[in-house]
């Protein structure tokens, strides 16, 4: 991170944001041209190399993206389902090869066959209606997925309205920021983005920073294949998320909140923008919120295709218009974050739980779930389940019950489930009975709950091919800041690719590589990749034996 560049970007703040300008200019032709990049560099007093280097990083800004009209999902869930070759074939009847790009992931893991065209995502049977899509007819081709709950509906109840938002926030204004912080502390809610870090600890640390300018950032860059819970909240429950952000701002003394939504979720961007407009219409956005002296403004910012932006410090660099490289910590974002100012970064699901906590009390939330993993968790089931969809369960819920009762079991033989995205653990089906849905149970079992998206690996899908896919994914998405991740992931991909062509791997060399990735990487992208690989090497030893010396 360059503190000088952060400060220069911060001169114009969130209202005139460099990254947002880069995204908008790329939408015209698919990539901003060099004259536009030079003009932006001059406007923000930065070198040409900064704007060019930033634009060349993102999938939707690269020069190769010019002229691309349609994108095919290449996420893990669609890959193992085997639907995407057919999607590409059908798209080729309407588009030239140069007009077809890729996105990962579109959050359509429940039915696959996913693609994006003209700012809209499609999946399932929509590929068979291309003629109508291209002609822009009014036919409803939106996806449908089951949304259920096995107990208390903290996140999946009736959608909050703007007026309810105003009424319930008045309770916070009446009781003060210390009271609101105490409720969150009593709830013991931990971050739902994967790390499981206590929310109240972050808030308290940021609140104690003397700097007057602070920010709240919602990390809505849900990029884990198999997960679409954030997408649900952003599109169906946006007021819950915005309420959580404003509450966090009131507690720490921040007057601006940025919702950073991945570019692969265009419907989410639109839904959140409309929600902010609804709040503005009733004076819950801007100055003197609810008649108080508290000021707060939301900014919805669309991403440009980079999985690494799900890492909080890379996301902050992205917001500043820099290359989204991971930052060395300390200092932590709560001390020095966006534009070098104290910043709270929480994910969508964490923030969305705040309204229930405020309404019912932190002590009541703490009664849900387990002692160390309180509350509820949204879990996403992919298309291999008989009842695919998103379900809200209490922390500690039986994984076996979720898979075989709530999810109805599998449609065809499955040998493992990959839980928590590309950096999560690969759980063989015979271990499902041993786990509960909480942070501790998965960690003790040698896995990771993470975002709790589930990708099923069918019996017929070669595990060696899945492991190559994980290394390739990491190599493509690495920010390049540290060598263990950027080089190590490429070496792992090469080793597996060569083994599939008859050049067997040295197991000790693979183990050394995984150890280097695990302990040497700056963030969870390189550091988390080895978990699933090691799980596969442990539980699918016989299937993988022929690829090693």
Characterise the protein shown here.
The chain is α/β, with parallel strands linked by helices. The chain has a four-stranded mixed β-sheet with strand order 2-1-3-4, with helices on one face. A four-stranded parallel β-sheet has the order 8-7-6-9, sandwiched between helices. Helix 13 links the parallel strand 7 (256-261) and strand 8. Helix 3 (34-43) packs across helix 4, helix 8 runs parallel beside helix 12 (238-252) and helix 9 packs antiparallel against helix 10. The longest helix is centred in the middle third of the chain and has 16 residues, at 266-281. 54% of the residues are buried.
At a glance:
The protein is an alpha/beta fold and 549 residues long.
Describe the SSE topology.
Elements: H1 3-10, H2 18-29, H3 34-43, H4 48-55, E1 70-73, H5 76-81, H6 84-91, E2 100-103, E3 115-117, E4 120-122, H7 130-134, E5 146-149, H8 162-175, H9 177-187, H10 199-207, E6 215-220, H11 229-236, H12 238-252, E7 256-261, H13 266-281, E8 297-302, H14 312-319, E9 343-347, H15 348-352, H16 354-360, H17 362-366, E10 376-381, E11 389-394, E12 397-398, H18 399-406, E13 414-419, E14 425-428, E15 436-437, H19 439-444, E16 454-458, H20 463-477, H21 483-486, H22 488-500, H23 507-520, H24 524-539, H25 541-544
Parallel strand pairs: 1-2, 5-11, 6-7, 6-9, 7-8
Antiparallel strand pairs: 1-3, 3-4, 10-11, 12-15, 13-14, 13-16
Helix pairs in contact: 3-4, 8-12, 9-10, 9-12, 11-12, 11-13, 20-22, 20-24, 22-23, 23-24
């Amino acid at each position: 991170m360059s503190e000088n560049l952060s400060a220069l970007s911060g001169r114009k703040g969130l209202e005139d944001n460099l990254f947002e300008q880069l995204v908008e200019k790329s939408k015209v032709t698919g990539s901003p041209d060099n004259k536009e990049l030079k003009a932006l560099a001059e406007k923000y007093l930065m070198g040409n190399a900064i704007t060019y280097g930033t634009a060349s990083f993102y999938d939707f800004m690269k020069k190769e993206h010019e002229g691309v009209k349609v994108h095919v999902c290449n996420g893990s869930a669609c890959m193992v389902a085997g639907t995407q070759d057919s999607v590409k074939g059908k798209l080729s009847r309407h588009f030239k090869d140069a007009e077809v790009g890729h996105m990962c992931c579109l959050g359509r893991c429940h039915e696959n066959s996913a693609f994006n065209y003209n700012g809209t995502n499609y999946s399932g049977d929509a590929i068979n209606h291309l003629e109508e899509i291209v002609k822009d007819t009014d036919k409803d081709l939106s996806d449908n997925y089951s949304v259920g709950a096995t107990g208390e509906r903290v996140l999946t109840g009736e959608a909050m309205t703007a007026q309810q938002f105003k009424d319930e926030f008045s309770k916070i204004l009446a009781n003060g920021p210390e009271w609101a912080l105490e409720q969150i502390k009593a709830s013991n809610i931990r971050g739902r983005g994967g790390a499981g870090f206590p929310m109240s600890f972050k808030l308290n640390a940021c609140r104690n920073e003397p700097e007057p300018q602070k920010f709240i950032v919602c990390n809505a860059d849900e990029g884990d294949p198999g997960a679409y819970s954030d997408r649900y909240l952003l599109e169906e429950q946006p007021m819950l998320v915005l309420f959580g952000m404003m509450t966090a701002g009131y507690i720490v003394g921040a007057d601006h909140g940025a919702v950073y939504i991945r570019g692969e979720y265009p419907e989410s961007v639109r839904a959140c923008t409309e929600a902010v407009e609804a709040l503005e219409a009733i004076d819950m956005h801007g100055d003197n919120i609810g008649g108080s002296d508290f000021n707060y403004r939301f900014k919805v910012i669309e991403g440009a295709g980079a999985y690494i932006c799900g890492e909080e410090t890379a996301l902050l660099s992205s917001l500043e218009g820099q290359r989204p490289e991971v930052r060395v910590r300390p200092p932590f974002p709560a001390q020095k974050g966006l534009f070098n100012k104290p910043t709270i970064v929480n994910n969508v699901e964490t923030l969305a739980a705040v309204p229930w906590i405020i309404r019912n009390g932190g002590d009541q939330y703490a009664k849900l779930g387990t002692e160390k993993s309180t509350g509820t968790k949204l879990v996403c089931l992919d298309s291999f389940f008989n009842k695919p969809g998103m379900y809200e369960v209490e922390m500690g819920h039986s994984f076996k019950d979720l898979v075989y009762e709530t999810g109805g079991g599998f449609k065809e033989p499955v040998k493992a489930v990959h839980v928590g995205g590309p950096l999560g653990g690969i759980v063989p089906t015979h271990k499902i009975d041993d786990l509960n849905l909480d942070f501790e149970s998965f960690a003790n079992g040698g896995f990771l709950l993470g975002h709790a998206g589930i990708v099923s690996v069918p019996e017929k899908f070669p595990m060696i091919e899945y492991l190559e896919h994980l290394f390739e994914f990491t190599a493509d998405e690495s920010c390049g800041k540290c060598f263990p991740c950027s080089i190590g992931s490429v070496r792992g991909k090469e080793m597996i690719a060569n083994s599939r062509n008859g050049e067997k791997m040295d197991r000790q060399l693979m183990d050394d590589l995984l150890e280097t990735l695990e302990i040497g990487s700056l963030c969870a992208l390189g550091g988390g990749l080895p978990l699933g690989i090691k799980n596969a090497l442990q539980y699918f030893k016989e299937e993988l034996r022929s690829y090693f010396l």
